[in-house]
Design a protein that fits this description.
- This protein is of the alpha/beta class and 325 residues long.
- It is built from 14 helices and 10 strands.
- Strands 1, 2, 3, 4, 5, 6, 7, 8, 9 and 10 form a 10-stranded mixed beta sheet that branches.
- Strand 5, helix 8 (165-176) and strand 6 (182-186) form a beta-alpha-beta unit.
- It is globular, with a radius of gyration of 23 Å.
Length: 325
Amino acid sequence: MATTRRAALAAAGAVLAAPLVGRAQGSWPDRPVRIITTVPPGGAPDIVARILAQWLQDRLGQSFVVDNRAGQNGALAATAAARAAPDGATLLFAQDTVFAVNPFLYANLQSNPLTDLLPIASVASNQFIMSANPAFEARSLAEFLEVAKRPAPPIPYASGGVGSQHHLAMEMLSQRAGGLNLLHVPFRGGTPAANATVAGDTKVMFSGTSTAPLIQAGRLRALAVTGPERSRLFPDLPRIGEVFPGYEVVIWLGLFAPLGLPEPIVARLRAEVAAALADPAFRQRLDAAGGVEPFPTSPERFARLIREDAEKYRALIRALDLRPE
């Protein structure tokens, strides 16, 4: 009798609890959501994160606030997100190098992004533009290669940090060209790197198409692009791959969360990102941000892409013997 009574009470409790669980899951977001990003304001991850945050805020009726945590090639932002509670109040918007480069470049990471973060969705992709200060003597890719072959002095080039795509793009070009006389000047993000190149403190850099307004205003001179196709914004620019077949640098940007995020929130976020990437107005905002391309994938394909890129860049880092500066 006692056993039957306890079973009945347990069953009743389960029936009463089920609606409460459903309401708790269905109430997300019930407070402002922080989207940590890896660069200072103005870089491509920051720009796209803000576009996505506005979309989510409009759709879900809650504030989505971008939190810029620049430093260590995005590792500081990744660690902050990995250590956050998996309750949907903290997300991470990051570029590929956080996952494909950092685990193999930095010996003392406070977290491992490959194991401590949950991929939610890919959002955008972007090829790079090689650009120079307008006073720099090289006015084309061919002239840059000629100048950079001279024995002295070295050409100072800016990047968004050691191991950033800006850095790797230039090192890969040097490798393919048989060695160039260059001086790497790392910054904490692409925006301060672009500012230094505009000011003439550095002479040349690779950057995402977020620098397109600076090029169009004549504050930077574009020399080439890194993608598999010519740029829609600058169709007259050559691809580096036209000179060095197989050379290609295209970055992706994606949304991540702390491990353990409840599946209903994961599913809701994935559905919202998919809806955003299919929306013409959202795609137009990406295009206006400098020709950033929407990059929808399935969760399985996104996870596989992260693994594939990690293998590719691990081999490159070893070949170049890159070390934090």
